[in-house]
Amino acid sequence: MPCKARVAVIIGSERDREYGEKAVKLLQEHGIEVVFRVLSAHRNPKELDRFIEENDESIDVYIAMAGLAAHLPGYIASRTQKPVIGVPLPAGPLNGIDALLSIVQMPRGVPVATVGIGNAENAAHLALRILRLAGRCE
């Protein structure tokens, strides 16, 4: 059975594109439909809200990656019941540690799975495992 799944890969800015494209490539190699967007929880929250509202029903898993404060995964998780995987990216003086701490400190009821700093491929692998458990992929 091919994958009958749709994953949204959302990056916070164009400078994060190289990471996002790694996740997209791996997912597409497994036959997963990917929606790739550049949307910031800080710079364009209304556009991000609109994207989630218009696509949430058809999205199975979200992968969100951003540097610095990394509010993007938490913001998405607060607006959906779908799994959200956060990828903190190396940025700023602590090289991603602030981003990781931001994701780890999400409030109760707003879960975000987190992979290692900059590891977009592991986010894609985790999405695949979630989809397999849900019976959406082999």
From TrEMBL:
GO terms of molecular function: 5-(carboxyamino)imidazole ribonucleotide mutase activity; lyase activity
Q: Name one Pfam family in it.
A: AIRC
Q: Which domain of life is it from?
A: Archaea
Write down the NCBIfam families for this protein, in alphabetical order.
Answer: purE
Q: Which organism is it from?
A: Pyrolobus fumarii (strain DSM 11204 / 1A)
**Which purpose does this protein serve, as stated in its record?**
Catalyzes the conversion of N5-carboxyaminoimidazole ribonucleotide (N5-CAIR) to 4-carboxy-5-aminoimidazole ribonucleotide (CAIR).
Which reactions appear under catalytic activity for this entry?
5-carboxyamino-1-(5-phospho-D-ribosyl)imidazole + H(+) = 5-amino-1-(5-phospho-D-ribosyl)imidazole-4-carboxylate
EC number of the protein: 5.4.99.18
**EC class of this enzyme?**
isomerase
Q: What is this protein called?
A: N5-carboxyaminoimidazole ribonucleotide mutase
**Residues annotated to bind substrate:** S13, D16, R43
Its family remark reads: Belongs to the AIR carboxylase family. Class I subfamily.
